[in-house]
Amino acid sequence: MGGSHTLAEGITPMQFGHFDDEAREYVITTPHTPYPWINYLGSQEFFGLISHTAGGYSFYRDAKMRRLTRYRYNNIPVDDGGRYFSINDGGDVWSPSFRPYKKDLDRFETRHGMGYTRITGERGGLEASVLFFVPVDINAEIHQVTLTNLSDAPKSVDLFSFVEFCLWNAEDDQTNYQRNLSIGEVEVEDGAIYHKTEYRERRNHYAMYAVNSPIAGFDTDRDSYLGYGNGFHEAAVPHAGTSEDSVASGWYPIASHHLEADLAPGESRQYTFVLGYLENADDDKWESPGVINKAPARELLARFDDNAKTDAEFARLNEYWDNLLGSYTVSSTDEKLDRMVNIWNQYQCMVTYNMSRSASYFETGMGRGMGFRDSSQDLLGFVHLVPERARERIIDIASTQFEDGSAYHQYQPLTKRGNHALGSGFNDDPLWLILGVAAYIKETGDFAILDEMVPFDNDESLAQPLMEHLKRSFNHPLEKAGPHGLPLIGRADWNDCLNLNCFSSTPGESFQTTENQAGGVAESVFIAGMFAAIGPDYVALARRRGDDAEADRAEKAIADMKQAVVDHGWDGEWFLRAYDFYGNKVGSHENAEGQIWIEPQGFCIMGGIGVDDGKAITALDSCRERLNTPHGMVLQNPAYTSYQIELGEVSTYPPGYKENGGIFCHNNPWVIIAETVVGRAEHAWEYYKQITPAYREEISEVHRLEPYVYAQMIAGKDASRHGEAKNSWLTGTASWNFVTVSQYLLGVRPDYDGLIVDPCIGAEVTDFTVRRQVRGAEYVITVKNSGGKGATLTVDGVDVEGNTVPYAPAGSTVQVVASV
Ligand code: GLC
Ligand code: GLC
């Protein structure tokens, strides 16, 4: 049962920890993972990234524009810099997080949980444990430190905290030293350290780091704390055992506290540190000239002045997650499946919702805002968790659409404004909006959102009902059709790296924004597949609004598009990928490289193309033969071995990496769903396990990244590091895999009028029960599975026709039994 991985010769299974499903945690038992294994703190406005050795940083809403603490990407060693607690125990200086001192620990354990991380280290008879979390509805990160004397002699221990402030704009902070090294300012009052750089001028916010216990000293100047020329691991103050009480003036503001703890044998001490973000009204910024108004900070500190209050806030965070994760659960014979569905996949969906693609250990949080395409797809994975926030996100996204249906490719989360530098012209963008809105309405029944007035290009005077936005989305590929009646690709479609109109020969220039060939020829079979797959939702919405003429028109357009794919998008054994600037085929057996691409196979079949005439099965068999590997399906094959100017960025990557034949985990689910469309449960299940992290845990040495979340990419078969993952956490892989496993493999998906129950999962998963809350009712769905498709259902003991369980009134519980 379980692992589908054939370990390559010479590779022994290797793990760096284990799952604790009861606690919903991944437990890392060594600091020596192959890469920092991280977690996210925060669920609303205040966020932190934290590695298993306490590296990382914190920010308020926007990782670029409101960064609280500093982080150096691509540093040596990787992941230096974080929230460090140093212990001086009789001259022995160490940290429970292993870093920065890297002193051997008698025990090390990091537990990454839902919105919190607990790091515990033990050395020389002293245990230090730090619980890091961001409370619900509070703009602060809590560090609750517990020291325990495990020895049989009394101990006098010095404890030092440390965070390094970022001067708010993370990009400026890393580049603009001529200004920045002069502007740093702090205040210290009652042991609380306030970071107020730029507060004297246009900012109305500051940060604070404080602890609920008397301190013996503090530092706010980095050179004083570290000692000039020292690394974090050589920090002078912890080694000296006493603080300098330094006050930063320019240079590098930090916050460090010194606490003294006398511990009898067996005794524990607990402290709550609060790293807070505070704002004041513009006319209420100052307490007295030059002294910031600390009223909101004092209020925040009062909420954590007693450790029992901290415990209560932590309990509240756990309840928040109990609640969220209660809306979809499965209980099956496969513990890996259960832990992915019930815990980690949904958790990752929430994190991608919060971050989009902005802040991870692969994304600096400085470059990318919220993607129109990405955020629309993310909706699919979190709409059942926080429907009201999905609604808000939909309005935000749609507000960045242009009147012609196209859209800003990205917008900035703090301002919600479109990003001009990147602009528009990614011709798949419009259709994703329909998909996201349809998912929201199916989940909630909130058809009224379609009447919501939503601006175009953030201009209120151009506002139109959301339904009108969807209409323009639907029409966009029709209005921008090429010579074969297929949608023009523009700068790129889903594959940002297939740039058929760019022809870039200037080093360093962006492949996506260089548009030096305004050809009207390059067409995307993938967008055509999207149109076939997503268009029917537009038809359904129009019909439900009583607009039959519009629904009929749309249906006809979809039929025509499908025909265009059959006539011009079929290569004989698979779907073509595109036509290039010259009208030549991309993704054809006629090409020397890049003969078959994964994306159109998945989406055309999801759109029903070729399902009745065998093309779908043929295409899926081709995927199996040419794209599949034990680590997942590669994006295309054979990978490009040289730069092809007419294809763009895709051919810039070395073979086997990223879009050039890497296993791009985001699109594997489309093939898995397609396999369920044609009813091949065993293939679908096999492909699911190949890329799903819990099943890859035993090959952590090869996979290298966190075994609890999906990565964007696993190196493909042409790469020397085949099987190695990169870009974990922030990827459309999270939502698409959750859709795949919850709605297609386990087969429970909301529709407009009821819950569809249509499982299609390998026979290995014999019987299972899904509990699904939707529109206030609960559905308990017991499935007897033999690995086929086409379940017969009883609802509350009565046989029903078809596979839709009508929605029941809120408050009711519906028992469904399905046999397949
Ligand atoms: C990245 C982008 C996504 C794109 C994909 C393929 O994941 O965030 O928008 O579709 O790459 O290029
Ligand atoms: C860049 C990356 C590419 C990624 C894309 C996402 O072009 O090189 O791999 O998919 O950005 O927008």
From TrEMBL:
Residues annotated as domain Glycosyl hydrolase 94 catalytic: 320-747
Keywords: Glycosyltransferase, Transferase
TM spans (from-to): none
Signal peptide: none
Entries under InterPro entries matching the protein: 6-hairpin_glycosidase_sf (IPR008928), 6hp_glycosidase-like_sf (IPR012341), Gal_mutarotase_sf_dom (IPR011013), GH65_N (IPR037018), GH94_catalytic (IPR033432), GH94_Enzymes (IPR052047), GH94N_CBP (IPR037825), Glyco_hydrolase_94_b-supersand (IPR010383)
Domain Glycosyl hydrolase 94 supersandwich residue range list: 24-305
SMART domains referenced in this protein's UniProt entry, alphabetically: CBM_X
Gene Ontology molecular function: transferase activity
Entry keyword annotation includes Kinase: no
Domain of life, per lineage: Bacteria
Identification of the protein by name: Glycosyl transferase
Protein source organism: Demequina muriae
Taxon lineage: Bacteria, Bacillati, Actinomycetota, Actinomycetes, Micrococcales
